[in-house]
Amino acid sequence: MDAFLKKQKCLVLAPHADDEIFGCGGTIARMKDLGAQVYVIVVSVGEVLHYGPDKEEKVDGDTRNSEFENAMKYLKVDDYEVVFNDTKVHLRLDAIPRRDLVNYFERECKLAIDKIKPTMIILPAASYNQDHEAVFRAGFTACRPHLPHIKPFQKIVLSCDNPAISWSLEREKFHPTFYVDISKYLDKKLKALSYHKSQLKPSIHHASLDNVSNLAKVRGREISVEAAEAFMCHRFVV
Fold it and tell me: What is the end-to-end Cα distance of the chain in Å, rounded?
């Protein structure tokens, strides 16, 4: 597996800052430790009203951007970008025509698929969250097959786990078919997630560090290792 991961050029498409760590922070850490290339696109960042331990708290876009940048620097990813720094767009990605989102992912982003030509793409899992659903659908479309001699397409397409998607309709449940052992990188995943301080919740909330650790350990037990990250594999071409 190390030899496989080492040769990848991976692009992670995350709806919001922190989704990249919740979903695949340990995998990012392992790939970078092995010398692979990893790029991260966060689709939107903006001011948002969160419920905290005692009251609602407003978190501004600058805070979210700073947290994201610090997490990416800690993980030493090759490059990263935020597509929309706009509160009017944030949490409303489902209002953007899918064709426009596909165009961003394929051509217009700094780290667009046509520009960096990744070998692996990690999408958010489809879920009840309208922004995650929009990014998944547009990202999935952007990964559609082409004639390889005219335009190469992504041979490995995955979608990643997220603690929040436990609340899903039965027909939309996350059924992992691809695992990455992150036993040596769980602490690094949690450290990276801790940079997203404004987004963390106290235990036993699904967005707490304790719960993220517990989920990684559960996924690990599913494959008889200490900790793992789980993915749904949509395409794997060899």
Answer: 14
Half-sphere exposure of residue 221, counting CA atoms within 13 Å on the CB side?
Answer: 5
Structural domains in the chain, sorted by start? 2-236 (3.40.50.10320)
Output the average pLDDT for the chain: 93
* DSSP E strand stretches across 86-205: 120-124, 156-160, 178-181
**What pLDDT, in 10s, does the model give residues 201-212?**
889 898 999 999
- Rounded Cα–Cα distance for residues 113 and 165 (Å): 26
Each residue of 196-225: b (16+ CB within 10 Å) or e? bebbbbeeeebbbbebbbbbbbebbeeeeb
State both tokens at 116.
């960096």
* Residue 53 buriedness (CB in 10 A; 0-12 / 13-18 / 19+): exposed
Cβ(227)–Cβ(184) below 8 Å: no
> pLDDT value at position 53?
55
Strands (E), the chain: 9-16, 37-45, 48-51, 56-59, 79-85, 120-124, 156-160, 178-181, 228-236
| 61-81 pLDDT tens trace | 899 999 999 999 999 999 999
> How many angstroms from the chain centroid is the CA of residue 233?
14
Q: What are the DSSP calls for 170-203, one per residue?
A: GGG-----EEEE-TTTHHHHHHHHHT-GGG---T
Which amino acid would we find at residue 125?
Answer: A
Question: How many whole angstroms separate alpha carbon 197 and alpha carbon 193?
Answer: 8
